[in-house]
Amino acid sequence: MFDALLVLNIAAGTIERIDLSDGSIRALVDDAGAAPDGIAHDAESGRIYWTIMGRPEVVGSGPDAEFDFSAKNGALYSANVDGTDRREILPVGAITTGKQLTAVLAAGQLYWGDREGCKVSRVDIDGTGLTDLVVNAPVGDIMQECVGIAVDPAAGYLYWTQKGPSKGGKGRILRTGLDIPEGETAADRTDIEVLWDNLPEPIDLHLDGDVLYWTDRGAEPSGNTLNRAAVPGPGERGAQPEVLAGGFHEAIGLAVDSAAGTAYVTDLGGTVRAVPLTAGSEERVVARIEGRLTGIVGM
Question: How would DSSP label each residue in 46-89?
């Protein structure tokens, strides 16, 4: 079971550590880079890895200001679990917009979604072997942007979300093989399946056995929720998801503690909530942090 949570604060550019025994919060990394978004933990080596989206261009001013992350200035970093020995895995500009990060540590690899890059990519933990696994052609309506990611190395599958427009009801969850079919490329591979479509706005994923969990920041009542559904078989479509919790303020990050029967969800309102996976327990607020929270990982 988790003893602590590491949470990314995109507004402050920090990594916060939440002690689950007493609820105390402290900054583990004071300068995680511009707009940190995805985080993973390697218990064996005692290291953490995280992506940044990079510094956006601010369009407009005041409450109507928008943030344009299309510049290629994302990166991937690592540090000891106590925040020391920070290393650059991929330098600023190696990726466009680093989103959810997943580690397949038996293979020594990291996988992530690249939103404005419209890609799903991986790299070895030493920064070598950067490979694009899915490359979508941008079409101008953000339908091809990739965000959340989950990996099933045993079955050889990769899952990811394409959230679609904000509150647009056009989100999708897709699946493909971990290896590109022979003679094909990341841009033209023919083994991609759409498992769910017309979702409000799916964001981060977590695969637990044959069950897929995801956050959704779309329009209520189906959006701003935590969801789960059984993983469909090859060539099948996903069943209607079960909504486990709702009412989030732009739900983003997700960490599932199967042993404790709890899912932890972050939102852009600065809240971390614990959601029970079975009936009989109540949701609770784990922490409220000034800022906007994105990625989360248990340790």
Answer: TEEEEEE--PPEEES-GGG-EEE--SS-EEEEEEETTS-S-EEE
| Alpha carbon distance 77, 33 (integer Å) | 9
The number of beta carbons lying within 10 Å of the beta carbon of residue 248 is 23
Amino acid at 68: D
Q: Tokens 């000891």 label which residue? A: 80
CA distance 45 to 23: 25
What is the structure's pLDDT at 254? 98
CB under 8 Å to 70, separation ≥6 — which residues? 57, 96, 97, 116
Of 163, 66, 51, nearest in space to 118 by CA: 163
Q: How far is CA 97 from CA 127, 148, 168, 241, in A?
A: 17, 12, 21, 28
Chain segment 93-143, per-residue pLDDT in tens: 999 999 999 999 889 999 999 999 999 999 999 999 999 999 999 887 799
> How many CA atoms does the CB half-sphere of 175 hold within 13 Å?
19
| Tokens encoding 216 | 């959704």
Question: In this structure, what DSSP letter does residue 278 have?
Answer: S
Tokens 């953000």 sit on residue: 142
pTM for the complete prediction? Answer: 0.97
Q: Omega before 153 cis (within 30°)?
A: no
pLDDT digits (tens, 9 = 90+) for 212-257: 999 999 999 999 999 999 999 999 999 999 999 999 999 999 999 9
- Rg (C-alpha) for the chain, rounded Å, is 18
Q: Cα–Cα distance between 220 and 299 in angstroms, integer?
A: 31
Round to whole Å and give the CA distance between 49 and 246: 29
